[in-house]
Amino acid sequence: MLVLSRKPGERILIGNDVKITVIRIGPNSVRIGIDAPGHLNIVREELCLNADQAALAGSGSGEHGDAGGPNLPR
Length: 74
What we know:
Layout: E1 11-14, E2 18-25, E3 30-35, H1 45-59
Antiparallel strand pairs: 1-2, 2-3
């Protein structure tokens, strides 16, 4: 894992297409902005974990039909 320190307004670049900007730093949170192409699916980790748990509970078999993750709006 790469750990970086950034100040509000500073960016992190991932490849040629993804820019992450620190918007605001608060006492208990950091607000970031992500600028990425539309074909990339960007979701919070807890949404993927909740969707996986719901799929397991609903299927009974324990197998995932969609290996690409949940189809959630950006």
